Amino acid sequence: MELRENYSLKNYTTFKVDCRAEYFCELSDIDELTEVVQLSKSLKRPILFLGGGSNILFTKDVEQIVVKVNNRGIEILHEDEESIEIEVASGEDWDTFVEYTVSNGWGGIENLSLIPGSVGAAPIQNIGAYGVELKDVVVSVNAILLDSMVNKVFEIDECIFGYRDSFFKNELKNKLFIRSVNLKLSKNPILKTEYGSIKEELNRRGIKSPNLKDIRNIVCDIRKNKLPDPKVIGNAGSFFKNPVVVKSISEKILLEYPEVPTYRISDNEVKIPAGWLIEKSGLKGKRSGETGIHNDQALVIVNYGNASGEEIVKFKDFVKQTVYEKFNILLQEEVNIF
Ligand code: EPU
Fold first, then answer.
1. For residues 307 and 313, what is the distance between their CA atoms, to the nearest angstrom?
2. In whole angstroms, what is the distance from residue 274 CA to residue 332 CA?
3. Which of 43, 215, 311, 327 could form a cystine bridge with 110, CB 3.0-4.6 A?
């Protein structure tokens, strides 16, 4: 394992912000983890595991030991006529894995196509899109506890998945290394086509009985049309979560904007798209120096090239403030800010 010092992270996050890691290494083999943990103890610095870097914003040079997770491997654990259980290493690229499952005819994650990032980061965020969340297919998450180096299997009930949330993001933050994830996929999948934009696209294309590949193609096309490609323009997908508000707040908004999209959460709560709130606050396409709100999806903050992390943080605070003043709703960041 090669340890680098003062190493640029610009190409290791999709935001493409130029910060440096005081210590950086890549972990391709799980056996190297012991070495990394020993290093962390001797340098008295915690470890920051980095997957695809697609949900992270660095605002300054990083004091933690940055470990790029690169372990690979896909193993079929069990299969019958109906389903298949697969163990996927955390360092695998998420979308390459989705493509592999779709091409084999295994359903369950086709709606999560083209989400940038690694397999290991997927359960931390409980990634979701177009009516599907990772939790719908997880069997277990296989981890190594860093203080004892003991293997621990987290069955789905122990993962405490929520909307873009999990046990790993909270109490267990920085306490473990996610080695792999076990997923159960279906050989006779019931496709999830209810999400508005998928339905519209199926109608537009005249597809009445879609298959897995149709759904993957449609999701990829919707994402390519709406979301900026991080390879072309720096961003980390949705910057904010969609807020859940009490009905009294949404009813007030409804008076002025009867068209506001809302999703029922409970008798007294609804979710409102943050992208809609930002757009109605007049910020869609708003640019400030090297950063700004994307033209086609107001939930995405972009780096036009040379934005610093601090500049982006200042801008997102301005977005929060503007939305708060207009709607009395305080947005919460989805992106992890360091
Ligand atoms: N909307 C606007 N203006 C905008 C953006 C959205 O009015 O600029 C409205 C749309 O018209 C629609 C509603 O908001 O009525 C929802 O929009 P969209 O389908 O684009 O989804 P989203 O709520 O903005 C969420 C996820 C995305 C995920 C999509 C599709 C969060 C924080 N974001 O976005 O996830 O791809 O749904 O399921 O939940 C991510 O997490 O990084 C991400 C991209």
1. 10
2. 9
3. 215
What is the H or E stretch that residue 256 is in? helix 247-256
* Chain length of the chain: 338
- Give me the active site residues, please: 164, 238, 334
Task: Supply 27's token pair.
Answer: 């972990």
**CA–CA–CA angle 157, 163, 168 (5° rounding):** 55
pLDDT tens digits, 70-88: 999 999 999 999 999 999 9
Give the whole-angstrom CA distance, residue 263 versus residue 26. Answer: 42
Q: How many whole angstroms from 223 Cα to the centroid of ligand 1? A: 10
Residues with CB under 6 A from ligand 1: 129-130, 197, 226, 237-238, 241-242, 261, 273, 275-276, 279, 284, 297-299, 334
d(CA 231, CA 306): 14
User: Mean of the pLDDT values across residues 147-176?
Assistant: 95
- Ligand 1, closest atom to CA 242? 32
Class of residue 82 by CB neighbours under 10 A (exposed 0-12, middle 13-18, buried 19+): exposed
Q: How far apart are CA 189 and CA 309, in angstroms?
A: 42
The answer for residues whose C-beta is within 8 angstroms of residue 220's C-beta and 6 or more apart is: 113, 114
164, 197, 276, 329, best to mutate for ligand 1 pocket (most atoms within 8 Å of CB): 276
Mean pLDDT computed over every residue of the chain: 96
Give 7-42 pLDDT, tens digit per residue.
999 999 999 999 999 999 999 999 999 999 999 999
- Residue 66 burial (10 A CB sphere; 0-12, 13-18, 19+): buried
Task: For the chain, list the domains and their CATH numbers.
Answer: 4-69 (3.30.43.10), 74-186 (3.30.465.10), 234-337 (3.90.78.10)
